[in-house]
């Protein structure tokens, strides 16, 4: 068929239609209405023509359509009137005792003899109905992997259509539209829990449904102590706290080998706490242990060192003006060790606020021990020949038969006349490269074994995520 001709016909037909449409609207006396009704009410839908355009008794039939289905036809004797429906002479449709099923679009059609075309008018009934909700997933249970997208929804019904509101952990979740769908990324395990949707439309009681969200994740490991001081004959516990969903399989290794378990070395589990218990420590037990956890989503591990060297020392507060003069300062410290301390190394230098340019200039003092018994060794020492009105910093390492301890936290102190500001007092941990200063000097000192001390952070938690999508 010729395309242009086709278009032409189309234009002609549609313009004819439009003319007719205009007529249709003018023909009606009744106006389109939307009736909001309570259940069991009686509803009257009008369908009156303008008497002028009706022009006598030209009407051949009156039809009513509900949601595009013919339900009433005055010309068709066979078509039974639905229960509770009455078609009045004047064209009105009356419905008694409406139910929610009566909600819909109603079209009244008046059929006239040729050449008049039928005319139509649109009405609607809304039978108010309390809300209800249907959750998705319908089981009310949803499981996702950590980091995945969560999609849950609540399909509401009721007349008028209800407004859906979401709650979790007692708080409303602010949502943009569409409100039926709740969508977010499960970036945090804390997002797991009960999600509730409530549907309200002002008719009757609001309805609600709950969806429980479960987030599965690869193992996460924690330990309270990643470095444990011990000595032969002692009893020691290596602890690894593991959370994982699904539950993880946990193994203990030392070096690359699984830790041999027997009546002396036991692996214990209490809830999420995994413990390696060594009842009677032997020197061969010293070393780095790895606690490794695996589940379907990944694995993680954490290292715990068992060592015989002393615990890092701790300086005690000595801000007593009587013992500290303008050129000397008395330091007091404590070191825990199950085996006797052989000697201390005390390092000190004038404190310079970090400018980044000044080179460290530590002075090392080797301090012998006195005869005292452990496990707590305390000692005091007076550094002499200090500059007056100067802030200094000091740190301590100590040695027993198993080697040198890790350095103590850095202590800052001032000789008489200098002001020790608050920010200088806070204990300095050995986190940054800057503080690993004694290592720089280890070569300049014959008996300094600081190089053997592990400054590295011993907890290395490696998480391997291998989501199988
Ligand atoms: C409507 O009528 C039925 C039957 O009498 C009754 O069971 C129902 O509760 C009524 N509904 C309302 C909303 O009044
Ligand atoms: C149409 O008929 C019904 C039933 O007799 C009546 O209630 C209604 O008022 C009538 N409407 C008009 C416009 O006459
Ligand atoms: C509503 O319609 C459905 C299906 O058409 C029917 O099963 C149900 O009984 C009806 N309910 C009422 C109150 O008429
Ligand atoms: C380092 O300290 C010593 C004394 O403790 C001093 O004689 C020397 O000049 C200092 N060196 C630098 C570069 O500050």
Automatic annotation (TrEMBL):
<feature type="signal peptide">
    <location>
        <begin position="1"/>
        <end position="21"/>
    </location>
</feature>
<dbReference type="InterPro" id="IPR050958">
    <property type="entry name" value="Cell_Adh-Cytoskel_Orgn"/>
</dbReference>
<keyword id="KW-0677">Repeat</keyword>
<feature type="domain" description="Ig-like">
    <location>
        <begin position="26"/>
        <end position="110"/>
    </location>
</feature>
<dbReference type="InterPro" id="IPR036116">
    <property type="entry name" value="FN3_sf"/>
</dbReference>
<dbReference type="InterPro" id="IPR003598">
    <property type="entry name" value="Ig_sub2"/>
</dbReference>
<dbReference type="InterPro" id="IPR013783">
    <property type="entry name" value="Ig-like_fold"/>
</dbReference>
<keyword id="KW-0393">Immunoglobulin domain</keyword>
<dbReference type="GO" id="GO:0007156">
    <property type="term" value="P:homophilic cell adhesion via plasma membrane adhesion molecules"/>
</dbReference>
<dbReference type="InterPro" id="IPR003961">
    <property type="entry name" value="FN3_dom"/>
</dbReference>
<feature type="domain" description="Fibronectin type-III">
    <location>
        <begin position="311"/>
        <end position="418"/>
    </location>
</feature>
<protein>
    <submittedName>
        <fullName>Protein turtle-like Protein</fullName>
    </submittedName>
</protein>
<dbReference type="InterPro" id="IPR003599">
    <property type="entry name" value="Ig_sub"/>
</dbReference>
<dbReference type="GO" id="GO:0005886">
    <property type="term" value="C:plasma membrane"/>
</dbReference>
<feature type="domain" description="Ig-like">
    <location>
        <begin position="219"/>
        <end position="307"/>
    </location>
</feature>
<dbReference type="Pfam" id="PF07686">
    <property type="entry name" value="V-set"/>
</dbReference>
<dbReference type="InterPro" id="IPR013106">
    <property type="entry name" value="Ig_V-set"/>
</dbReference>
<dbReference type="InterPro" id="IPR013098">
    <property type="entry name" value="Ig_I-set"/>
</dbReference>
<dbReference type="GO" id="GO:0050808">
    <property type="term" value="P:synapse organization"/>
</dbReference>
<dbReference type="GO" id="GO:0008046">
    <property type="term" value="F:axon guidance receptor activity"/>
</dbReference>
<feature type="domain" description="Ig-like">
    <location>
        <begin position="131"/>
        <end position="214"/>
    </location>
</feature>
<dbReference type="Pfam" id="PF07679">
    <property type="entry name" value="I-set"/>
</dbReference>
<dbReference type="InterPro" id="IPR036179">
    <property type="entry name" value="Ig-like_dom_sf"/>
</dbReference>
<dbReference type="GO" id="GO:0043025">
    <property type="term" value="C:neuronal cell body"/>
</dbReference>
<keyword id="KW-0732">Signal</keyword>
<dbReference type="InterPro" id="IPR007110">
    <property type="entry name" value="Ig-like_dom"/>
</dbReference>
<dbReference type="Pfam" id="PF13927">
    <property type="entry name" value="Ig_3"/>
</dbReference>
<dbReference type="GO" id="GO:0030424">
    <property type="term" value="C:axon"/>
</dbReference>
């Amino acid at each position: 068929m010729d395309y242009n001709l086709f278009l032409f016909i189309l234009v002609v037909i549609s313009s004819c239609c439009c003319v007719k449409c205009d007529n249709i609207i003018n023909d009606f006396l009744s106006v389109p209405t939307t009736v909001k009704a309570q259940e069991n009410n009686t509803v009257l839908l009008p369908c009156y023509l303008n008497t002028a355009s009706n022009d006598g008794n030209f009407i051949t039939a009156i039809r009513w359509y509900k949601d595009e289905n013919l339900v009433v036809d005055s010309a068709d004797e066979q078509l039974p009137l639905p229960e509770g429906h009455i078609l009045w002479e004047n064209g009105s449709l009356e419905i008694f005792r409406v139910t929610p099923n009566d909600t819909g679009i109603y079209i009244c059609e008046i059929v006239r003899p040729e050449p008049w075309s039928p005319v139509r008018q649109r009405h609607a009934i809304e039978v108010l109905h309390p809300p209800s909700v249907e959750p998705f997933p319908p089981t009310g249970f949803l499981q996702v992997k950590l980091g995945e997208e969560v999609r849950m929804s609540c399909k509401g019904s009721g007349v008028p259509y209800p407004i859906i509101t979401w709650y979790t952990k007692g708080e409303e979740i602010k949502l943009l539209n569409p409100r039926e769908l709740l969508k977010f990324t499960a970036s945090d395990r804390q997002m797991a829990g009960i999600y509730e949707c409530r549907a309200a439309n002002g008719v009757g009681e609001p309805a609600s449904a709950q969806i429980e969200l479960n987030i599965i994740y690869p193992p996460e490991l924690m330990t309270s102590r990643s470095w444990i001081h011990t000595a032969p004959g002692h009893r020691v516990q290596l602890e690894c706290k593991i959370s994982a969903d699904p539950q993880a399989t946990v193994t203990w290794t030392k070096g690359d080998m699984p830790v041999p378990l027997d009546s002396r070395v036991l692996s214990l589990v209490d809830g999420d706490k995994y413990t390696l218990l060594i009842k009677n420590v032997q020197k061969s037990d010293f070393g780095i242990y790895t606690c490794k956890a695996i589940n379907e989503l990944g694995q993680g591990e954490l290292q715990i060192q068992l060592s015989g060297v002393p615990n890092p020392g701790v300086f005690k507060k000595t801000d007593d003006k009587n013992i500290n003069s303008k050129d000397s300062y008395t330091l007091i410290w404590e070191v825990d060790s199950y085996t006797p301390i052989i000697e201390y190394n005390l390092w000190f230098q004038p404190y310079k606020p970090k400018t980044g340019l000044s080179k460290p200039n530590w002075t090392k003092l080797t301090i012998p021990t006195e005869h005292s018994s452990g496990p707590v060794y305390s000692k005091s020492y007076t550094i002499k020949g200090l500059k007056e009105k100067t802030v200094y910093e000091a740190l301590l390492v100590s040695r027993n038969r198993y080697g040198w301890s890790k350095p103590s936290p850095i202590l800052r102190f001032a000789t008489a006349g200098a002001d020790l500001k608050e920010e200088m007092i806070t204990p300095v941990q050995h986190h940054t490269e800057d503080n690993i200063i004694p290592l720089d000097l280890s070569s300049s000192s014959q008996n300094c074994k600081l190089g053997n001390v592990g400054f590295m952070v011993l907890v290395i938690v490696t998480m391997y995520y291998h989501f199988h999508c």
